[in-house]
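1st attempt posting a full record on here, be nice pls
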Amino acid sequence: MVGRALTRSLRLSSIFKNAIIFGIDPGENLYGFYEGLYDRCFRCPPVSDPSYEEWIRSLNHAEKFDAAIVHQEPEVIFWSDKKLEIPVYLPPPGFCQIAVSKRKLYEIFSGTPLIPEFSILTREILLSGKLPGEQRFPCWMRDISPGSDSGKGSLLAESPDAARAWTLLNSGTNEFMLADFLPGRNFACHLQTVDGLLVKAACCERMNYIMSGVAVSGITGNINRGRLFYDARIVEIALRAVDIVCSRSGERMHGAVTVDLREDAEGLPRVTEINIRHVAFAHAFAQAGFNTAESHLLITLGRFDELGEPYLNVGENNMIHRDVDGLPVWMPDCVIPGIGEEVRL
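the predicted structure (as tokens):
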């Protein structure tokens, strides 16, 4: 999904609209191979396969790629620690190892106002029902395996009984994080940094979710409605979180990341996770004239003087609309129509 969003973004770019774009994927979902979005597609081995690195090297030897945009988190981790003779723009490897682990991330932020209060409980404790006395409900309960996303194993648990039932249903999960529930707005803050210097920043508010009815908490990983905006306060909090992780890993930030945040009861945005990739609605940024795929590729190629404005600038009434079987639509000025009102594009 993210790869297709980035490709659509490049097709909107006045700089890269005529680029030859290859799609390379292990093929768990074959849709992208047959969509017709890419000029050429290859099925590759999984990144965990010992043959993956040599396969990539052989393909590059044959095709001589100018650059690669690596966007799936397991691949980002692998490529960030390798020299594969293809120009890439990725966060540093130590940062990646921390960011993909919700446990490591929250432990680093523990005691700061960046995150909500949390605990990590084993399957055995949750099934026993003998939870620590300080555990509060309702709480947000989620799988904390590395790289887990799209709401994997997530539930708004209203009581210890609900937490126990969810543990039973998620038989493959051995540990859960239980964090104070954040009732406010849900944000994503996309950052692109070059050698410690922020060069691009944009935010989105997630408002409603695709197929929310199939998720117990009504929250899936993907929006069907949202809006784009820029808020210096949210960007500052996101950058502070990134800086703390870099301080722990001993690295200077360089790469594209997305920090997810949600407001607490007082309206303070708290960090919920850091993703070492673009967001699924990246195409909306491009439609709004803030093409994060274009800037990603320009940075990869060292063309920094073509990056344009660093911050997103859009009107308050813009809206993203997405659905399962349709192309995402970004409206610069969207008003929800009244009953009986004709909608004209």
